[in-house]
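Ligand: GMT. Inputs:
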Amino acid sequence: MVAKRFLKIGITCYPSVGGSGILASALGEELARRGHEVHFISYERPFRMPSNAPRLHFHPVVINDYDLFKYPDYTLPLSVKMAEVARNYSLDVLHVHYAVPHATAAILARSMLAGQPATKVVTTLHGTDTTLLGRDAGYGPAIRHALNASDAVTAVSAWLRDETQRLLKIERPIDVIHNFYAPREPRRTRAEVRAELGFKDELMLVHHSNLRRVKRIDILLEAVARVRPREAFKLVILAGEDFSPYQSQVERLGLADRVVVREKVLDVEDYLQAADLGVFASESESFCLSILEGMWFGCPSVSTAVGGIPELVVSGETGALVPVADTVELARRVESLVHHPLERRRLGAAALLRARAMFSAAVIVPRYEELYGRVCATDRG
Ligand code: GMT
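Predicted complex:
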């Protein structure tokens, strides 16, 4: 039997609430649990990064706001910190989540380390780094350069891999490693959460996201407003950002007593265990970690068939998929599942099984370990 090689891995991600940061934090935590030494490098401690866990370290990037710059720069101090940590801790791998500007900073850091034992750069694409910024003439060439210079590139869905190759005209191989989720134990009971939210017998619809434009909260609210009878449900929105821009629409649609909003929620598990059905109207989504989070609590979803979502949700088996911007169909599928509890539970049970079988830490983390092993075994020459 070959002894397992424990690696020293630097991870850079956005530390705030957002799918790429959540995934990167969970990956770092799991890698440390498996014996690797993990160094997070970012401007803030990732919000889900546990304190006092063995082999888990955090290195802050300090950004000075010099008067001579109109815009503060993050890429250079990040690359200097990456090189410093790589040198001081002999990192085997720098794994960056979200290409902009992390991949460019990592390539620069690797150049600064020239002549020393090689640190390999792995870039994981999460979505808008390709689908939005990749189309931007001011970013596209820099992203293409950083991806071509990375030792390995991964994408969180096959759809995102194909989009990246098409949009950025990249021919190099991109490994698809889907996202995983490792739910924490809820701190409150389902009954306690429902009481806090003011529920009686209503069904709990849930939507959780950062509310950015691609999430199409406008369409989501319009669809929910069509569902009858209204007394049968309430929609809980766990908002990563300020919900106030949508408040007037909630009132106009007569949903004021049907929509409950909680902003900047960190304990999503508490709410997801109490939810009956997820609703998503995104017009672009490379994966949709939020759907997966619900699946882990047996919560099926109705969502748009867009981007990588069909790799996660099997329509009719673990949830329902509807065309983008089809408010009527979205409402129809939600209403049908509101009225058919057995069907809802069947989909929820299958969603949980699928999450365990395909999107668990036990399945996904070894794929990253295998990738690290592969890049560490190669010499860039
Ligand atoms: O736009 C967001 O939701 C944030 C973004 C991020 O980088 O955190 O999310 C992207 O990455 C998530 C984790 O891989 C995916 O689950 C989301 O689908 C993806 N968002 C988009 O593609 C719009």
